[in-house]
Protein 1
Amino acid sequence: MDLFSSGASLTPLPIDDGELAWLAQLPLPWTNADVLARLIAETPWREETVVVYGKRHLQPRLSAWYGDAAYRYSGLTLAPAPFTPLLQALRAAVEDVTGHDYNSVLLNYYRNGCDSMGMHSDDEPELGPAPVIASLSFGAERVFILRHKRSKQTIRLPLSGGNLLVMSGFMQQNWLHGINKTTKSLEPRVNLTFRKILST
Ligand SMILES: O=C(O)CCC(=O)C(=O)O
Ligand SMILES: [Mn+2]
């Protein structure tokens, strides 16, 4: 254990054909509410257009991409912005708990229950075959849905403020994940997925 380690540790969640681990509260020097407010206020949010089967759609959420490399996702290339001091601090806390390092982060802002993310895998080639994706949530509780690509087994994990969920192993090859719309939760939520883009 290094000098700066918080000592917090992830709990493995048993799952077929992949690895999943969870921590209820990432240790941080601020309240979850303060982090949420700062992320909402400080981020240059974009409403991206994506091309799916040749048709252009506005994504039902806002997003922002930070890191050292551009990122290609559903036909669009997101230009990276350099990590802010807040994002550097969040990344350091996530690296401490997960024991992995990350050079990029995708922020998604679900403004209310109408915002969502379709089922997908984070399987872009630049992430490598077995990426470690560390997902940190603030704000409203939303249900993270996992669906096995072949067995169709479905797992619903409610994620709330301060939760850290780590997908690794062959999760992206074998499972889809997403966030459905809901009529229930109208409070905002911001999710950060820390990733490592491999040099190409
Ligand atoms: O908002 C979430 O919990 C999921 C985000 C996600 O899957 C992604 O950014 O690729
Ligand atoms: Mn994803």
Protein 2
Amino acid sequence: MSLLSVRGIVKEFPGVRALDGVDLDVEPGEVHCLLGQNGAGKSTLIKVLSGAHSPDAGELSWNGERVELGSPVDALRLGIATMYQELDLVPGLSVADNIFLGHERARFGFTRIAQAREEAARLMARLGHPGIRPSTEVGKLSAAGQQLVSMARALAHDARLLVMDEPTAALAGEEVDNLFRIVGELTADGVAVVYISHRLEELRRIGHRVTVLKDGRTVGTGLDARTTPTADLVALMAGRKVETVFGPRHDGHARPETALEVANLTRAGEFEDVSFTVHAGEVVGIAGLVGSGRSELVETIFGARKADRGTVTVRGKPLGPGVRAAVRAGIGLAPEERKSQGLLLDLPVVHNVTLASLGRYAKLGFTERARELDDAGASLRRLDLRPADPRRIVRTLSGGNQQKAVLARWLVRGCRVLLLDEPTRGVDVGARAELYRLIDELAATGVAIVLVSSEIPEVLGLSDRVLVLREGRVLADRRSAGLTETEVLDVILEGSAA
Ligand SMILES: Nc1ncnc2c1ncn2[C@@H]1O[C@H](COP(=O)(O)OP(=O)(O)OP(=O)(O)O)[C@@H](O)[C@H]1O
Ligand SMILES: [Mg+2]
């Protein structure tokens, strides 16, 4: 008898049948991976499992008994805990409050705040981050820090089934290892895990079985996560045979003229004395752990954070303070946290794409010239937006499709210097290959690109040069040709310049 059995689940939203008859069986102690392209219905399915959406048809059984999940509390009572793709933490509350919000023990068990804090500290230590204090306000943590809090919250429930929707999207190597260690401990105790990721190598590492969704239907289930050939998985996801799974490949288009020059840029506590230049047509990758100052650095170059010291020069002209000056000088930033920094969730995709600038930083109006609308449509088609309707409200798009909308904006705008912070996060294999090609094409037209990514093969494959940042300092600035993943990792982890 399966722990959880899903039969014929259907879920419709206005204009979209997100789930169209999904079947799935989850056994105790297994890591069951869900695969599928952006918009295939993975997150919608897990929202049905967590009681957040009620299905229009189909049934769920738990230990062989038919169940109805009217709300997330029902699911938690059964023993199903969920880590959502879009974090649902309360930024103004502390780490401990977020972990125990709505928790049974918050009502009955914890008589004192101190007890909740102790338990929260224990969970953060188990996750390998004793440094994240229970009293810290969640809004002050980085994206990775928040992801860890969300994980701690799921662990706090002693669930029998843990559902994780792209948990590693915001994490770098070390944190991923921690997460996988915990998944191993849980499954050894008989806890089942439903795991969603676009990174096939993760499925190989921790997965037992795989179910593939396409257009809201189960197209393959019970497949062996270790031995099923990648080509077969990709073919199931895409619904056709895909000749090659493209990796990043970059030709090298650097021109003699300098596009961006960063000199001694410093923000106390974040990064110090960072200096580098990027030529027109050059792609410079920035590698480093989460917390090494990578995002803070690109946001400072973009004028969204104020530098304590140092200068940014674009095509020989010193850049004034603020985002407007940066945008005027031709700098674009696709930020790491698309939800809080990149998108206006209640506007249609097309307006997000044609926005003159980032909503949070500079309040500019949007232009609706027909040409721009056409360009938006073209960029979105290129990135394979699904559903392919630019009039849809961004909030109703799947996570990967929201990411495509952020990227499309800067493709339309045409920048001279493009700062990309984790651009492929949550983007499926096919769209990712297209994105790699686009980055290469932009470089070929002379755009200078700074690429922050936690995936070292991606950084090495796309960049002409790699900077390694560790604790806010540049420890290496090397040509990527000939550099290996291990060499980069050595610098990231040990700090020994290779
Ligand atoms: N609240 C909503 N209202 C309208 N449509 C929605 C809503 N939530 C999801 N959808 C649509 O349902 C479909 C499935 O979305 P879902 O988020 O489940 O995809 P996914 O497989 O998780 O994709 P990704 O890999 O990008 O995260 C998409 O077409 C999406 O636009
Ligand atoms: Mg999703």
Protein 3
Amino acid sequence: MPAVPPRLALTTDPKTVIVVGAGMSGLVAALELERAGHHVQIVEARQRIGGRVHTQRARDGAPMAEAGAGRIPRSHRWTWDYIEQMGLATRPLYPTGLNNVALIDGKRWVIDATTDLSTTVDLPPDEKALGFAGLVNTHLLENVEKLLAAEVIDTPAWPPSTLAHLDRLNIIDHLATQGLSQAAIKLLTLGAFPTSISPLMLSRVLATYDRESLAVIEGGNDRLPAAVAARLRGPILLSSPVRAVTQFADRIEIAIERAGQRTMMSADAVICTIPYSILNKVQFEPALSPAKQQILAGFRYTKATKVAFKMSARFWEAEQLSGFAQLDTGAEIWSPRWSSDDGSGILQLYQQGERAAEMDAMDEAARAQWAMESIEKVFPGAGGHVQASASYSWQDDPWAGGAYGIPQPGDLFRWQGNIASSEGRIYFAGEHTSEYSAWIEGAVRSGHRAATELQKATF
Ligand SMILES: Cc1cc2nc3c(=O)[nH]c(=O)nc-3n(C[C@H](O)[C@H](O)[C@H](O)COP(=O)(O)OP(=O)(O)OC[C@H]3O[C@@H](n4cnc5c(N)ncnc54)[C@H](O)[C@@H]3O)c2cc1C
């Protein structure tokens, strides 16, 4: 796999293409196809582009918080390449020189260079002897080393059959079978941690994740989809959900709903980026293959809700705190706009798992109160500084149906070759079809891959 996205050659056989979805995968697919000389239209269900790259903004347009993608590791090279192509400025996610906090069993710990997290819980003697760094090395990083040694990342040899045994259980159950205590498991899975991930998928994420170089796009991460969209020549039809897709020998037709009316559109091919969590709401004629239908029935999306608070002061900095924290409740606290000039700031609760779904039944005020109760445990007194709040539930979002689609244990091998495979004139893209699922990187790479496949089609 090349380090940066290669350009498609100019086509001698221009095709008409409908891209369904104006998230990062659809936008990249459209950009690359247009650059190669094809004619592209995008249809998008929402009133906005960007999909799960969604910056929540104040009334004056100033970015407040990222409801979706919040950080971009420098090691995600294809995403960075598009950021650079678009001429966008970035800045580090984390402030330097300040400390994070951990909340474990209701107790608050400031994490500085001297903190060994293993002292925060009651561990058996052998685990205590390892210390937190030793636990991480033995139980997480050794698998990363094995994966790196297999040299399969970004190659057709992924997923590696030699490491299939690391894809049988979720990480929590896997660590338990290694004899690790519940307290140690809790330490190793602190924060907004997708607990259904297998050790193999987790190792892949860690192997391609550079925690030291996390960045955000100046002015909001939604500037990236906006910049790509601005480069496109073809139209982007907003508020146009696709309801049906019908394939014929010589063309493909889609039915979209606009202002209560069904409208038909026709093209040579379709790139479909609709998340698999909701794709079964679209009617396909002929039906999708049994393999794809099995995947749609089995794909589980992670639940995530974020609640952001605009704070009158970044009072935590007086205590040398960064505003970032990891909780043992499947949550993290982020302080994404820490560098504002007037001393104000943001605290955002990023809650994953079933607790995120608990908030779905609540109204906005109740959600804010629920989230602030968690934040108060880490940053006491925070409630007194709140000026405004905004929440976002991805499982409640009808055009997402969940936060992201990381394959569950066993799925990688069970579904191998079918997750992303094209069906007739339909090409599938989206983070869920990529090895970098749950990242912009996955969306970008999948959009490029689908465009490349379509370019090679002979119909
Ligand atoms: C809470 C959260 C945190 C995240 N954190 C990070 C992070 O820190 N860093 C990172 O890199 N990534 C992160 N991600 C992942 C990243 O946001 C996604 O991987 C990426 O944005 C997905 O892009 P996509 O094009 O595959 O899908 P989407 O962005 O979902 O695009 C699909 C589009 O299809 C549209 N659509 C759906 N149904 C229809 C229909 N029937 N007709 C027409 N259009 C339809 C949708 O409205 C949507 O716009 C996060 C995501 C979430 C939710």
Protein 4
Amino acid sequence: MTAPAGSLLAAENLRKAYGPTMALDGAEFSIHPGEVVAVMGPSGSGKSTLLHCLAGIVTPDSGSIVYDGQELATMSDARRSALRRSEFGFVFQFGQLVPELTCVENVALPLRLNGTPRKQAERTALAWMERLEVDDLRKKRPGEVSGGQGQRVAVARSLVTSPRVVFADEPTGALDSLNGERVMELLTEAARSANAAVVLVTHEARVAAYSDREIVVRDGKSRDMERVI
Ligand SMILES: Nc1ncnc2c1ncn2[C@@H]1O[C@H](COP(=O)(O)OP(=O)(O)O)[C@@H](O)[C@H]1O
Ligand SMILES: [Mg+2]
């Protein structure tokens, strides 16, 4: 496929079946550098499957995904893992922090996995934790912090490698609305200042309100709301 002009990541005609279930049935997507796009839709509509395909975690049965001018399907496994390690960041609903590590070690982890020396990695990690207002938690373990604090630590970790795309799947799904709003404010501010694009999966309109644009998924089919309106 030819990706839409200026897009960083785009997908067309994605199909993915799990047995008899068509998780994706002709989904499309596109995002520009630095843009925040909300992927909306009811539970079971295919949002997470779309995110996993876009991030190269799940291989679609058919369709095309282009990242930075290159088809994901033509990349080697090594190149796709390198993308996930250095150019993509991830925030999930919960359970993503390593319980044995301190918060600063958790945030520094993606840099350590890329070979950055510990001191340097933790310095960068701490700068991101300051931005997300969780630097005072540096020595605590995930079990000792609140849900909202844990998600802010996870957001810091998703940004620590200066990724070009952050994939966030229901990042506020386990939080009350006040903590959810704060996480969204800090996530979108930090991502915008770093010019990282954000693929934000959510079923909540008040979370999607932080995006620049919305894509709606229903029964595995997605629609760019701007093109519909
Ligand atoms: N690994 C899987 N194995 C089997 N079925 C799956 C798997 N992942 C997703 N599905 C099914 O695909 C559909 C879409 O799921 P999902 O993408 O998780 O939706 P959403 O994130 O919008 O809730 C659902 O019917 C779900 O049960
Ligand atoms: Mg989901």
